[in-house]
């Protein structure tokens, strides 16, 4: 019989360090910011799972205690809109139970013409978040990112935070 | 209000009543199909079942699968990442019961590393004179495999099963049986109860 209690499976995870260091970077180099924060203008414009207790905005609120959860079956996806052209240098995804993650990006004004960017098989972690770091080289230009969770280690997966370190290249009119 | 989705594999030997069972689920017990139809590959039955006392529901994607060996290879692709399993056998066929272990193994190989909760359903209990698989025998095997089990006759209107969902805090009904999987908020339990 499989019965999991909320408390044993979903331990709240506190992860202060990256947020602090990110803030420090922001102060040293004024132009480098976390592009994926809602306070920086980022927005989740599509998510295939909807649970009002764990909405997609939780991924970009800068709070590592809140998350977006899938509500059953895979693949699942969400699209982040930056509302400007950005150049991403480093992308960090903090999640739980994600197995195969594909990331596509678009440089269009509208969320169309996505091209395959990154595909990763994540490591299964027990009791702590998956912390997947992606370094972009010269290929980090985007206006939209589409994250596809193709498979997971459990029946549900969750994403706690998406952060993209980089800079805004231009605003579109 | 959350709408959860779950992929439920309906598996078992040919002609044990998988499609009849799927149609009973689809029609809430109203429709019993009298003629045999051979299922090629998979027939998909989508059924939304509410979770009582909540605004939540589960959209069940029931993969009514072919029992014939001919389609076995096809099923390997279609069965990818199942959430719950419903194994069916015919109480008048010893072979359909013994093959359940083969079906179970095939289904579990599609969910490596994750739990695959399931139920074992013995069908055709109306054929009392021809019964060869005893209830105790099925229960013992199901227990060893971590499956819940019950018997039914899809033919008889008074013993038709229906899918009932319950929250984990509630006790499963006596004759019901449990299909469950986990969601961050709580454990959602699905019960296939024989009314």
Automatic annotation (TrEMBL), chain A:
What range(s) does the F5/8 type C domain occupy?
Answer: 47-152
Q: Specify the domain of life of the species encoding this protein.
A: Eukaryota
Location, primary (coarse class): other
Q: Which Pfam families match?
A: F5_F8_type_C
Q: Would the keyword Aminoacyl-tRNA synthetase be found if you checked this record's keyword annotation? A: no
Name its GO BP terms in alphabetical order.
intraciliary transport
The UniProt keywords, alphabetically, are: Calcium, Cell projection, Cilium, Metal-binding, Stress response
Question: In the record, what terms sit under GO molecular function?
Answer: metal ion binding
Q: Which GO terms describe its cellular component?
A: centrosome; cilium; intraciliary transport particle B
Where, per UniProt, does this protein localize? Cell projection, Cilium
Q: Give the record's family classification.
A: Belongs to the IFT25 family.
Function recorded in the entry: Component of the IFT complex B required for sonic hedgehog/SHH signaling. May mediate transport of SHH components: required for the export of SMO and PTCH1 receptors out of the cilium and the accumulation of GLI2 at the ciliary tip in response to activation of the SHH pathway, suggesting it is involved in the dynamic transport of SHH signaling molecules within the cilium. Not required for ciliary assembly. Its role in intraflagellar transport is mainly seen in tissues rich in ciliated cells such as kidney and testis. Essential for male fertility, spermiogenesis and sperm flagella formation.
Q: How does it assemble?
A: Component of the IFT complex B, at least composed of IFT20, IFT22, IFT25, IFT27, IFT46, IFT52, TRAF3IP1/IFT54, IFT57, IFT74, IFT80, IFT81, and IFT88. Interacts with IFT27. Interacts with IFT88.
Task: Show the PANTHER family listed in the entry.
Answer: INTRAFLAGELLAR TRANSPORT PROTEIN 25 HOMOLOG
Q: By what name is this protein known?
A: Intraflagellar transport protein 25 homolog
**What organism is this sequence from?**
Rousettus aegyptiacus
Automatic annotation (TrEMBL), chain B:
PROSITE patterns annotated for this entry?
RAB, RAS
GO CC annotation: endomembrane system
> Source organism's superkingdom?
Eukaryota
Q: Per the record, a Pfam family?
A: Ras
InterPro entries, per database record = P-loop_NTPase, Small_GTP-bd, Small_GTPase
Listed A to Z, the keywords are:
Cell projection, Cilium, Flagellum, GTP-binding, Lipoprotein, Nucleotide-binding, Prenylation
Per the record, membrane topology reads:
Lipid-anchor
The listed locations are:
Endomembrane system
List the Gene Ontology MF annotations in alphabetical order: GTP binding; GTPase activity
Please state which protein family the record places this protein in.
Answer: Belongs to the small GTPase superfamily. Rab family.
Name the NCBIfam families on file: small_GTP
Q: What is this protein called?
A: Intraflagellar transport 27
What is the scientific name of the source organism? Rousettus aegyptiacus (Egyptian fruit bat)
Taxonomy, top ranks, is:
Eukaryota, Metazoa, Chordata, Craniata, Vertebrata
């Amino acid at each position: 019989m499989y019965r999991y209690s909320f408390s044993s499976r979903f331990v709240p995870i506190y992860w202060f360090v990256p947020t602090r260091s990110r803030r420090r970077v922001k102060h040293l180099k004024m132009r480098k910011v976390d592009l994926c924060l809602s306070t920086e203008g980022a927005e989740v414009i599509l998510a295939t799972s909807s649970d009002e207790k764990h909405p997609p905005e939780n991924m970009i609120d800068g709070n590592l205690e809140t998350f977006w959860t899938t509500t059953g079956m895979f693949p699942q996806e969400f699209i982040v809109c930056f509302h400007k052209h950005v150049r991403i240098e480093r992308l960090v995804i903090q999640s739980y139970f994600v197995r195969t993650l594909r990331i596509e990006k678009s440089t269009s004004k509208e969320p169309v013409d996505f091209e395959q960017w990154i595909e990763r098989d994540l490591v299964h972690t027990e009791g702590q978040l998956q912390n997947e770091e992606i370094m972009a080289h010269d290929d980090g230009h985007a206006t939209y990112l589409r994250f596809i969770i193709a498979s997971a280690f459990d029946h549900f997966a969750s994403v706690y935070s998406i952060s993209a370190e980089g800079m805004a290249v231009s605003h579109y009119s | 209000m959350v709408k959860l989705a779950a992929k439920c594999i309906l598996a078992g030997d040919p002609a044990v009543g998988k499609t009849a069972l799927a149609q009973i689920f689809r029609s809430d017990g109203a429709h019993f199909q009298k003629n045999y139809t051979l299922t090629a590959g998979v027939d998909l039955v989508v059924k939304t079942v509410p979770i009582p006392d909540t605004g939540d529901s589960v959209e069940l994607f029931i993969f009514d699968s072919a029992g014939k060996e001919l389609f076995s290879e096809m099923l390997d692709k279609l069965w990818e990442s199942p959430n719950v399993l419903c194994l069916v056998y015919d109480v008048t066929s010893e072979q359909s019961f013994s093959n359940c272990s083969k079906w179970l193994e095939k289904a579990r190989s599609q969910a490596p590393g994750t739990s695959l909760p399931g139920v074992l359903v013995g069908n055709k209990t109306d054929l009392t004179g021809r019964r060869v698989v005893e209830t105790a025998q099925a229960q013992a095997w199901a227990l060893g495999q971590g499956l819940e089990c019950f018997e039914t006759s899809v033919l008889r209107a008074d013993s038709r099963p229906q899918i009932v969902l319950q929250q984990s805090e509630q006790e499963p009904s006596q004759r019901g049986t449990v299909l469950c999987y986990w969601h961050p908020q709580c454990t959602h339990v699905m019960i296939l109860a024989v009314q």
